[in-house]
Predict the structure.
Amino acid sequence: MDTDVREQVGHDTIEAQVKDMEKRIERIELALNKINRGHYGRCDKCGGAIPVERLELVPEALFCVDCEKKLHK
């Protein structure tokens, strides 16, 4: 029975990782579209500039730090 539980937990972990990667791919595609339209580096919520430091860490960022925080409250 222990083996079944470990296998299920492993499967659930992999499934969660796949979903996270799919979401990141979607955000990367959105960022690429913004580059093509000349809007890359602008927050989708307030329209302000996303700091370069944030874009270096999260190139697919859609929101500035302030708007991102507001979305997760």
